[in-house]
Amino acid sequence: MKIIAARVIVTCPGRNFVTLKIETDKGLHGLGDATLNGRELAVASYLTDHIIPCLVGRDAHQIEDIWQFLYRGAYWRRGPVTMCAIGAVDTALWDLKAKAANMPLYQLLGGRSRSEVLVYGHANGRDIEETCDEVARYQSLGYRAIRAQSGVPGLASTYGVSADKMYYEPADAALPTENLWSTPKYLAHTPKLFEALRVRFGADLALLHDVHHRLTPIEAARLGKALEPYALFWMEDATPAENQAAFRLIRQHTVTPLAVGEVFNTIWDCKQLIEEQLVDFIRTTVVHAGGITHLKRIADFAALSQVRTGCHGATDLSPVCMGASLHLATAQPNFGIQEYMRHTPETDEVFPHAYFFKDGALHCGERIGHGVDIDEKLAAKYPYKRAYLPVNRLEDGTLWNW
Ligand code: EZ4
Ligand code: CO
Predict the structure, then answer these.
(1) Which of 208, 227, 231, 295 is the right S-S partner for 147, CB 3.0 to 4.6 Å?
(2) Would residue 394 count as lying in a domain?
(3) Over the chain, what is the mean pLDDT?
(4) How far is the CA of 282 from the centre of ligand 2 (A)?
(5) Could you tell me the pTM of the whole model?
(6) Which among 270, 282, 319 has a CA at the least distance from the CA of 33?
(7) What average pLDDT does the segment 342-356 reach?
(8) Does ligand 1 have an atom closer than 6 angstroms to the CB of 288?
(9) Angle between helices 63-73 and 291-303 in degrees, nearest 10
(10) Number of structural domains the chain divides into
(11) pLDDT digits (tens, 9 = 90+) for 109-155
(12) CATH at residue 304
């Protein structure tokens, strides 16, 4: 099956998405997500200017060889732009192989290991009461696992809290919005949120929380300890993880389960975290970590340390990424949970897909390939719109982690 053409489709049905479409001489096409939030056009150029010329004429079945060619062959290894581009190619090739085999992708990844893919939704509110009400609403929608984020008294805004509750979209402006952050205010408030949630919802509901890289290791250790009575499913991105050894300190102090890795792009970013069992869930995704091939390599390596997957699934990961992720989750023995922030109806229309939500879980569906397509005519009606994630400053002006 020869690759005869490939092109990049950029569309903004409410938010920007970059999609790679690969066409073959068998009349089949494959799709891969290449969206890097806030840096979209860098990946589009990497694909169009540097990768596509190398793809045309190759055998689309040689997924591993093409992966190695793009990774080793670039000389410059790793990094989010490179790995997103490689991820898009890899996802499109797996889509093609499964279509050529006339099978849903999960069959090629080892077949079905579970009947459904447990997801968690995002509840958020301006204060504790509003957040509790949102958690109740998510429960009524069928969710069995819910992430809770609340506004912090004394802070005008914070990560994870939005006016439009169903569609939180942090990349909200043509230039980065500046937010103010106070760790003491956050640390004083957050245990109260989870105390209130346990009082109202009891012990059974799976509750998650995203710290979004804002604490130092010792502060993260303190929060993890303070949250222990409320038995979280996980505490996410407690501290930045460029220094993987930082998690040793958190681990020494708390049994609150830890999740990390949505910004990672290769197995090297999590090697020590996994080997030393410093985390419980690895959040790396199909799009940002080199596609199905590399994410499966990370997940299999994680299984050795009883680390489970908990893939990132925010709105900036396109339906193409979600479809691919759900097929891997259906087959992977050490799947843990999948994040699920619904896309807007406009996005769902541009990307018709076989996956569906039922009773707090997603199902990848039985369509051949990864089951996600793109309506190019419709996509063309939504031109690219520059958008950035916010930045964070401490109250004295110091630039901090957003
Ligand atoms: O901030 O996807 O767990 N989810 C998250 C997301 C990320 C965005 C960044 O592009 O942390 O909301
Ligand atoms: Co996160």
Answers:
(1) 208
(2) no
(3) 97
(4) 11
(5) 0.98
(6) 319
(7) 97
(8) no
(9) 90
(10) 2
(11) 999 999 999 999 999 999 999 999 999 999 999 999 999 999 999 99
(12) 3.20.20.120
